[in-house]
Amino acid sequence: MEKMWIGALGLSSLLGIFGSLVAAENATLAHVEIDGNAFFDSKTGERFYIRGVDYQPGGSSNLTDPLADIEICKRDVPKFQDLGLNAVRVYTVDNTQDHTECMQMLAEAGVYVILDVNTPDSSISRSNPGCSYNADYLQTVFATIDVFANYSNVLGFFAGNEVINDETNTNTATYVKAVVRDMKKYMRARNYRQIPVGYSAADVTENVQLAAHYFNCGDDADARVDMFGVNDYSWCGKSSFQVSGYSTKVKAYSNYSVPLFLSEFGCTKVTPRPFTEIGSIYSTQMSSVFSGGLVYEYSNEANNYGLVQIDSDTSVTTLQDYQNLKSEFESTQNPTGDGNYAKNNNVSTCPTYEAGKWEANNTLPAMPSAASAFFSKGAGEPMGTGYPTQFRCGDTNLSDYFTADAASTTQSASLSSSSASEGSSSSSASSSSSATSATSSTQSSSKSKGNAVAAAEVPTLFRAMAHVWNYVL
Ligand SMILES: *[C@@H]1O[C@H](CO)[C@@H](O)[C@H](O)[C@H]1NC(C)=O
Ligand SMILES: *[C@@H]1O[C@H](CO)[C@@H](O)[C@H](O)[C@H]1NC(C)=O
Ligand SMILES: *[C@@H]1O[C@H](CO)[C@@H](O)[C@H](O)[C@H]1NC(C)=O
Ligand SMILES: *[C@@H]1O[C@H](CO)[C@@H](O)[C@H](O)[C@H]1NC(C)=O
Ligand SMILES: *[C@@H]1O[C@H](CO)[C@@H](O)[C@H](O)[C@H]1NC(C)=O
Ligand SMILES: *[C@@H]1O[C@H](CO)[C@@H](O)[C@H](O)[C@H]1NC(C)=O
Ligand SMILES: *[C@@H]1O[C@H](CO)[C@@H](O)[C@H](O)[C@H]1NC(C)=O
Predict the structure, then answer these.
(1) Å from CA of 375 to ligand 7 middle
(2) Which residues contact 378 (CB under 8 A, 6 or more apart)?
(3) Which of 242-251, 374-383, 436-445 has the lowest mean pLDDT?
(4) Confidence (pLDDT) at 25
(5) Which of 211, 327, 405, 456 suits 462 as a labelling partner, its CA being 20 to 30 A distant?
């Protein structure tokens, strides 16, 4: 990809080479790549198991971008090293901010980032998924990709987190899968590294496996996930491989063709948590099917899942869970060799539609037509968090993201014919929020977007509910 990228830039390649010479002193981590159902270090060729934590200090109620504040990174990155981590998952970032220093510090510490591209205000809505899948939404997703695509220590992106969270909203999977497709096509159109794209599924027994197969099925390789995360809280206290149900899951997913990992784990029914599942996750009991996971979560928030208590921007107090996790990681080596991973080219069979059980559509909506402009121009100006897109049906006004000048000077990448889709998939229902003039001023860095934002602004209460419905961290 690197070579292709330089080639594609033609004249700019000299600059690119010069740039990388200048950057030589900066540590870069080798990309993590995928083969079969496993991750590998692209430099050493060794199997890569995620040893991570979920990381969103402040949680969803006090949303802060932990990768944009070097003080916060200086506080936390040494703790990641002390715990022996190689990855963190971040649920929301602010795409208007500069993340270079923190990403660099993480790279130097050997830590990869798995990044959710959504924000509470800009994500697929359970109440009206078709409407929320619109060009303004895709602009925020693509702008976040623009900001992070160049860091070698981005392990992957999540196109969605727990959007399906019970049996009544399985239809939302259709739109999340369309976002997976659009993200992968966007990275190709922009000549970025093809960073893996996945989905992080809620621990819903009735449909988590249906979801896993749905996201990995069908003829369109772009629409299929590159990796799949399951949030799983089944190992409580000093459980076991059998009692926790892990053994059943290893069997159930044994024919799954892409990397699978625990995108959240750490049941709190028994506290302090002994984290004895570490011994199982990083053993041959699991390694043929799972590639590690992320403990929920680094900082202690209202729901009491933390490893550390945050005292201030410069200090944290480690909790007993932290010590327990650290000692479990210390005493648990990865399986030797390739851990019996499987190279299985059989993608999943698409689950069939069944009312009340699995209502996702195996025919995906076309990308909203206005969004194809981003493929040729890039996403334009990032809009930050607190930029509500969920209730905007239909196509966007592109002038909101591009100044005339920027639009004419941005480099145009060659487009494959399939990426410029026709028509809009979004329903033509008028925005339910446009009638209200109530504007809430939530804490955010969103740039003002004139009338477009005002029209989409929704009452605080409604937004708060949207947070609960759609974005449970
Ligand atoms: C990506 O990194 C290369 C080499 O360091 C640099 O030349 C290029 O400008 C970067 N691209 C972006 C979009 O930041
Ligand atoms: C929200 O997070 C910021 C930054 O970490 C912190 O300074 C502030 O005190 C927090 N506010 C609340 C209400 O927790
Ligand atoms: C190298 O890292 C420093 C410190 O994080 C950063 O300021 C600088 O922009 C980086 N250089 C390049 C070329 O990425
Ligand atoms: C792939 O599918 C074929 C046909 O169903 C089957 O025979 C084969 O065992 C499968 N391969 C794997 C690795 O599951
Ligand atoms: C694996 O098995 C499940 C059912 O247990 C099925 O839905 C899925 O399509 C299978 N995948 C492959 C690759 O055969
Ligand atoms: C699936 O999508 C197709 C194309 O948009 C549509 O014709 C069909 O009615 C949808 N099926 C269901 C069950 O919603
Ligand atoms: C798009 O936005 C620009 C600037 O806000 C405005 O001048 C223009 O009339 C808008 N176009 C449409 C079709 O709404």
Answers:
(1) 21
(2) 142, 146, 190, 410
(3) 436-445
(4) 55
(5) 211
Name the percent of the chain lying above pLDDT 70. Answer: 79
pTM over 0.90: no
* Burial of residue 400, with CB atoms counted within 10 A of its CB: 0-12 exposed, 13-18 middle, 19 or more buried: middle
Ligand 3 centre from 112 Cα, in Å? 17
Q: Which residue has a Cα nearest atom 14 of ligand 3?
A: 23
Higher pLDDT, 139 or 5: 139
HSE at residue 26, side-chain half, CA atoms within 13 A, is 17
> Which residues on adjacent β-strands are paired with residue 315?
312
Q: Are 256 and 348 in contact (CB under 8 A)?
A: yes
Q: Are 201 and 261 in contact (CB under 8 A)?
A: no
CA dihedral angle for residue 169, residue 172, residue 174, residue 180, rounded to 10 degrees: -140
**CA–CA separation, 472 and 208 (whole Å):** 17
Domains and CATH numbers, the chain: 32-377 (3.20.20.80)
190, 235 in Cβ contact below 8 A? no
Q: How far is CA 417 from CA 145, 189, 245, 421, in A?
A: 21, 11, 46, 8
Mapped onto helix, strand or coil, the DSSP state of residue 255 is: coil
| 346 ligand 5 Cβ < 6 A | yes
The number of residues in the chain equals 473
Contact between 246 and 234 under an 8 Å Cβ cutoff? The reply is: yes
* Ligand having the closest approach to the CA of 209: 5
Please list the residues that pair with 232 across neighbouring strands. Answer: 265
DSSP code of residue 3: H
Amino acid at 398: L
| End-to-end alpha carbon distance in the chain | 34
pLDDT digits (tens, 9 = 90+) for 26-75: 678 999 999 999 999 999 999 999 999 999 999 988 889 999 999 999 99
Ramachandran category for residue 45: left, alpha or beta (phi over 0 → left; psi -120 to 50 → alpha) = left
Residue spans of beta strands (DSSP E) within 146-282 = 154-161, 197-201, 227-232, 260-265
* Residues belonging to the active site: 162, 264
